[in-house]
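Q: Hi! First time doing this. I have a protein sequence and I read that you can turn it into a structure. Is that right? Here it is:
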Amino acid sequence: MIRKIVNIDKEKCNGCGICITACHEGALELVDGKATLVSDIYCDGLGDCLPGCPMDAINIIERSAEEYDDDAVQERIKSKNEKKNRSMDIMDFTPFGMASHNNKSKTTKEKEKSEEDEVSALKQWPCQIKLVQPTAVFFRDAELLIAADCTAYAYRDMHSLMEGKVTLIGCPKLDEGDYSEKLALILEKNNIKSLKLVRMEVPCCGGLEVAIKNAMLKSGKVIPWEVVVISRDGRIL
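A: Yes, that's right. Below is the predicted 3D structure, encoded as structure tokens:
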């Protein structure tokens, strides 16, 4: 049958994996460092994977393809979740997603710390990307954390990721304008030591990754950076 389906330009694809996270049907995988459609039956042709691609390597075309099979998709998702759960049963995970068997080694004193002793890891104000000034003193020699608005509500240990960092928050879907201009100025005018992006697994968060990449290009500064992806049920993927 002729229907809409995803098409990936392998020449443009840089293997970042954003589209794979964005695809709710699990139709895409990395094969030899390139995003690849596993099977026609897993792709519904709606294009959730399109918005986050920084290389514009994905589009929706019409061609002869097998019919989308929702039952097969549900079985695939169930199988992938079972594998993931088995892995989590075998080992614990630290807040940064690294495998560890020492995650439960907190001292009794730490466990019994009262709520009165708990303090916010937010070390500066304001924290909205749109409100901060690129020349603010707190950016000097800073380690930067950029977080999607929703992550603070989805991930219960968010402040462990914020510890010791200047935190900026925003939502590329709800906020008007392009974050890359402001972020480029921050990089250009300050000695930012590192950058960590904390985003949700949903496609709209891909805009934050694109903004950071564009900011580095515009500023001429490429700094060490990493991406932490939070699932909708509050786990680090």
